[in-house]
Amino acid sequence: MDQLAPTEKYSPYRFFSAEQWSQFRADTPLTLTEDEIHRLRSLNDPVDLEEVKRIYLSLSRLLSAHVEASQLLFRQRQAFFNAQDVVKTPFIIGIAGSVAVGKSTTARVLKELLARWPSSPKVDLVTTDGFLLPNEILRRDNLMERKGFPDSYDVGALLRFLSGIKSAQRDVRAPVYSHLTYDVIPGEFQTIDRPDILIFEGINVLQPGKLPKDGKIVPFLSDFFDFAIYIDADEKLIHQWYIQRFMRLRETAFRNPDSFFHRYSQLSEDAARAIAEGLWSNINLKNLRENILPTRARADLILRKGANHLVEEVALRKL
């Protein structure tokens, strides 16, 4: 049984084409400009204002409804416990999906749209990159070629961070990652201070991990999410986008002498493409098949992209 097949009788999802989904925008205003979209989108990502109108305005409206429902439930619980001093915790949106599929663009566009709601909520964005173990530790434990796999993260730090956010703690710190040096920046942190909404983006954020046999509670990252989104595409397309992005970076960011990947900019095009294919096959494809794709069905909403890197279908979990 494929529960993600639109024709599947027992699927927990409702399926919509991009055109059908765009109709749910209703009167949601477009608050981004073309220049802002260009600034927010990642390399090789063609998202433009039309895609924002087709997909993201309806998504913004849906998330607004979920946030309002969460706030209403919070007020009802306050009355139930007669505890007016309880602090409302942030609404956390998890975004998962493979490398090169467009998670970062989705996260940044959503952050800007949500922050421009009439209520002007405070919206923060954190990625899991900063929670990767430092390269020094990865090298020591022979994990450099498993970077991005679940065992390459400081899971304890991830859980402490999300627990602090959901406990409405002040000034919760997230480590910062440099894509230039390909490593965590020592002593540098992003401070999150009780936002209304937190977007938490990373390839493995929906992974449940192993269940304990003794019934003890073992928290997973997704336990702290109020809504989860998975960015999806055919494996062959993601492979193509990954290689294209690598070759573009070879002509841009990799040319910086401080870049971890600077050596690849000195190779011939054929040699660089061979490196990219090896990184895809030996690391990213394995991670996609073993760890990322199996979490897709745990999402509340799935955005499936087509060959043009734009969303073709939306799957929304039934209530």
Automatic annotation (TrEMBL):
It is found in: Cytoplasm. InterPro entries: P-loop_NTPase, PanK, PRK/URK. Residues 92-250 form the Phosphoribulokinase/uridine kinase domain. One of its GO terms (cellular component) is cytoplasm. ATP binds at residues 97-104. Coiled coil: none annotated. It comes from Mesorhizobium tamadayense. One of its GO terms (molecular function) is pantothenate kinase activity. It comes from the Bacteria. Its EC number is 2.7.1.33. Belongs to the prokaryotic pantothenate kinase family. The gene is coaA. It is an enzyme of class 2 (transferase). This is Pantothenate kinase.
